[in-house]
Amino acid sequence: MAIASNRVVPLRRSHQSQSPKRSNSDNPQLGLLLIASTKYTISQISNPGTPPILLIKDENSRFDPGSAVIPTTMLDYIKNQLVPDIEKTTKSYNINTVEIIGHTDEQPVSVISGNLDSNLEIAASPEGSVITLKAGSNADLGLMRSLAVVKELLKIQQQNKMPGIKFRAYSAAQLILPNGEFAPIPQEKRQPESKRRRIEIRFTRLGEVREVK
What is the per-residue pLDDT for 101? Predict the structure, then answer.
């Protein structure tokens, strides 16, 4: 991302010895320049740049096919690496919201009928469990897996970790490739592809909600 230069060109004093000294208030243009420069500097300090995107790859921590039960290797990663990364990144970039996005491959889900329409809110509650959910599509499966990670993070948050951070669970199904492009229309039978299965962690800061009219 290109960052505009904040270099200030020094103003040269005139060599005319008889010229009277003038304050900034006598020069409106200079005053505006100083104000603009100050505002620009403050803006750069409060906007340190773009936060990273973290990935939990299926190649390293694999869910069972059609399942949202977090494997042991992923649980260890969440507790020992992801949580410290979230705490560090949210502080460095003034973040208040972490988005967890579940990505799947294009292989169809074997379950014919899902139950998220009737059970999702119950599973997302503190007393509920993602285990009770059945995916009827890859969109369902991606959401189930991201929700499982969010619920684990919320449990850890109760141990005085990641204070004030909000978590959101989303699904991208099989639509977004690892390079960020839309997946093409399959020309043959849909196949499993481990590189496309992943959990993505994005950092953002929620602002004022404005209705589009």
Answer: 98
**Residue 112: per-residue pLDDT:** 73
Distance of CA 30 to the CA centre of its chain: 41
Residue 29 has which token pair? 């243009």
Q: Which residues of 53-90 are buried (b: 16+ CB within 10 A; e: fewer)?
A: ebebebeebebeebbbebeeebeebbbeebbeebeebb
Tokens (6 digits) for 42: 């403050």
Which ranges of the chain does DSSP label H, i.e. alpha helix? 28-46, 72-77, 83-92, 116-124, 138-157
Are 59 and 77 contacting, i.e. CB atoms less than 8 angstroms apart? Answer: no
Cα-based distances in Å from 161 to 54, 83, 85, 99: 18, 8, 12, 17
- The Cα–Cα gap between 25 and 107 comes to 70
Q: CA-to-CA distance for 28 and 99, rounded, in angstroms?
A: 46
Residue 176 DSSP one-character state: B
pLDDT along the chain (213 residues), means of 10: 41 45 50 38 52 89 91 94 97 96 93 91 97 96 98 97 97 96 91 92 92 89
Strand partners, 103: 173, 198
Q: Specify the DSSP class assigned to residue 212.
A: -
**What letter does residue 207 receive in the DSSP assignment?**
-
